[in-house]
UniProtKB/TrEMBL annotation:
Belongs to the SsuD family. FMNH(2) which is absolutely required for this enzymatic reaction, is provided by SsuE. One of its GO terms (biological process) is alkanesulfonate catabolic process. Homotetramer. This is Alkanesulfonate monooxygenase. Keywords: Flavoprotein, FMN, Monooxygenase, Oxidoreductase. It catalyses: an alkanesulfonate + FMNH2 + O2 = an aldehyde + FMN + sulfite + H2O + 2 H(+). Its EC number is 1.14.14.5. The keyword Oxidoreductase applies. Catalyzes the desulfonation of aliphatic sulfonates.
Amino acid sequence: MSLNVFWFLPTHGDGRYLGSAEGARQVDYSYLQQVAQAAERQGFGGVLLPTGRSCEDSWLVAASLIPVTQRLKFLVALRPGVISPTIAARQAATLDRLSNGRALFNLVTGGDPEELAAEGLFLSHEERYEASAEFTHVWRRLLEGETVDFAGKHIQVKDAKLLYSPVQQPRPPLYFGGSSEAAQNLAAEQVDLYLTWGETPEQVKEKLAEVRAKAAAQNREVRFGIRLHVIVRETTEEAWQEAERLISHLDDKTIADAQAALARFDSVGQQRMAALHGGKKENLEISPNLWAGIGLVRGGAGTALVGDGPTVAERIQEYADLGIDTFILSGYPHLEEAYRVGELLFPHLNLVQQPTPLHAVNPAGEVIANRYVPRKVSQS
């Protein structure tokens, strides 16, 4: 199976160490452009843009990067409850047209009650998924060309329509991740691709089976994706050394403070991530080459695949064998790690989007004593 592999655009910050200002990197438009162009050059099919009050707006960032990229797709966040589904559908169609069919959408219900309250959303966990289901129902129908009348518990629209359709037909794909029962029900009913965070293969297998069964009960099929960090080096030993270096500035108080802040989230997925490491720096390899260190201080996806290129490719294949065809990867710092992943991991994967240098001046290789030595590219 050919794999779709995406990268991550760090609109909320980047750096060389977790939980430390040392080595932190200022993120501005120039840097985001560099990361996006590096991802495109190395053969990533698209980039995920995060959402939240600590991030730059994902829609505006994606729109700004359209003219400086050629084929890169942009996975941006839909936020039910804080925007009308009609306006969101109009924005989605516009972004898809302006990018010539490079827009993808990620439904994000939110999991931080404090942040949601600041945005004017005071629904409970279950109510948020009710509202998300209604939002998605209207949004999908509008983008598929229907005129929509809808009167739900949370959303009401009358004679809603789009005058200008998206490029992708019947509409741009909809991605979504959530571990609760309500989230899985929503995915089974309305979503094109269900995303999970990087739990162990056994846990992921169980979760995918649940969503697959729920979708089958709706006479639907759902594709699957996974969100993972990667630490890939020329040798597995070097990769594990890099993992340790990444958390070398973390002390017990920094970890405890981060875990206390994340504990207020009512996200089941976040609770499952926290359970993988228990707030301790010891015993972080929770499955072969799967490391839970990032989740010590970062919310969301908190695990990384660690190893040399062939080893990480083997672990990715284990997830692919479960039915996952889309991998959304990231690494710190994101500019340099985009190149490392492209150079060390991609030769061992069967990619949908093959890396092709843009406007290459010279073939890849080295000059030794005025003689050209071509670079050898290993084959998977």
